[in-house]
Specification:
Elements: E1 2-6, H1 11-23, E2 27-32, E3 47-50, H2 56-66, E4 70-73, H3 80-85, H4 87-108, E5 113-117, H5 144-163, E6 167-172, E7 175-176, H6 185-197, E8 204-207, E9 213-214, E10 217-218, H7 219-232, E11 238-241, E12 247-248, H8 249-258, E13 265-268, H9 286-292, H10 300-318
Helix pairs in contact: 1-7, 2-4, 4-5, 6-8, 6-10
The structure holds guanosine-5'-diphosphate-alpha-D-mannose (GDD).
Guanosine-5'-diphosphate-alpha-D-mannose binds near residues 172, 249, 274 and 277.
Length: about 325
């Protein structure tokens, strides 16, 4: 078996590569756009293609060279906030890359299984009566990022229906872990705490909305879900991936601060508050559980401890 991971040097891609190398005998290839830091330790064992996937000829070239049996399409613009600043940039990037991957597979390697990665953001406006969110919940997207993920999701369905591709679609809920970049809530908080601890930042942490409740999982559980879905998921089907529990963003903050000895004050930064914020998001993971047996294994606290450890190590490098 050979896997191709688009965006292998990204946060999720690097964890998926690690998981496959440690737990399977698959060959692992990947496309890289941007820095290699996340996969620096794995480079010798990976087949890497520097590639800009917004060009179909580049995608078909990579597929012709790599000839994968399974393809995890992770390359994307992942920030909801960035999509508010540049809506078309996110729509263009995410939709074009997804279309090229599906078209490329249809042209070059039509027996390759493809994982299309949507998002819980596709559900958008969630009311208390919609909780926990199953896959039949109506999609009421609230950002260009969410629309781009709806489009990716439905392109996956379309290529399954019209081209007979083995496409499995997943809607992951929030996930964090080591190597997640600043711009997401756990690294935003952990990096500020780690900086304050060593005097590289003020003893003051800037935060946004602490009341929002989200379903946080660890990235290492999420990549395990992705592998299970491409091996045991039903072609054409869509699956939620989340823990089934919500935590307030305040819990993220309190848990991280509780792991530090430093005296750190908290300040709400109006620039970090978001318009159209949904109060609570909780996943109903029944479908993925029934189909694959997947359960989350890493606790909220373990995940946050590892995020903080990662940022402490990053700050040490700067000293
Ligand atoms: N980023 C950030 N920074 N978020 C903050 C902060 C802060 O300082 N303070 C509070 N928050 C709140 C946000 O308002 C939001 O309610 C929650 O923390 C989580 O924000 P993010 O970590 O930025 O994630 P997201 O929900 O916007 O999107 C993530 O999850 C989606 C799946 O639900 C991303 O990983 C997306 O790519 C993914 O699709």
């Amino acid at each position: 078996m050979k896997a191709l991971i688009t965006g292998i040097s990204g946060f999720v891609g690097s964890h998926l590569a690690e998981y496959l190398l440690e737990n399977t005998d698959w060959e692992v290839a990947g496309t890289v756009f941007g820095p290699y830091a996340n996969i620096a330790d794995l480079c010798g064992t990976l087949e890497l293609y520097p590639a800009e996937l917004s060009r179909l000829d580049v995608v078909t070239f990579v597929l012709e060279q790599a000839r994968p049996d399974v393809l995890f399409h992770l390359a994307a613009q992942p920030l909801v906030s960035a999509s508010r600043r540049d809506p078309w940039g996110t729509l263009e990037t995410n939709i074009r890359m997804q279309l090229n991957v599906l078209e490329g597979v249809a042209q070059v390697k039509p027996d390759c299984r493809v994982l299309v990665v949507g998002s819980s953001e596709e559900y958008g406006l969630i009311r208390p009566k919609d909780l926990p969110i199953d896959e039949e919940t109506p999609l009421r997207p609230l950002s260009a990022y969410a629309i781009s993920k709806v489009a990716q999701d439905l392109l996956g369905l379309q290529y399954h229906l019209t081209h007979g591709l083995h496409v499995v679609r997943v809607r992951p809920f929030n996930h964090t872990g080591p190597r997640q970049r600043i711009g997401f809530v756990a690294p935003d908080f952990a990096s500020q705490i780690a900086a304050a601890e060593v005097g590289l930042g003020p003893a003051m942490i800037q935060v946004g909305n602490l009341e929002a409740r989200r379903d946080f999982s660890d990235v290492r559980d999420i990549v395990r879900a992705y592998v299970l879905l491409l091996t045991a998921g039903e072609p054409g089907q869509v699956y939620n991936a989340g823990s089934g529990e919500s935590h307030a963003v305040q819990d993220v903050l309190d848990t991280l601060l509780g792991m530090s000895e430093a005296e750190i004050k908290v300040r709400q930064d109006p620039a970090r508050m978001r318009p159209s914020e949904v109060p609570e998001v909780v996943c109903n993971p029944t479908r993925i559980r029934n189909q694959t047996g997947w359960e989350t294994e890493i606790t909220f606290e373990e995940s946050l401890r590892d995020v903080l450890a990662y940022w402490r190590a990053e700050m040490k490098k700067k000293l």
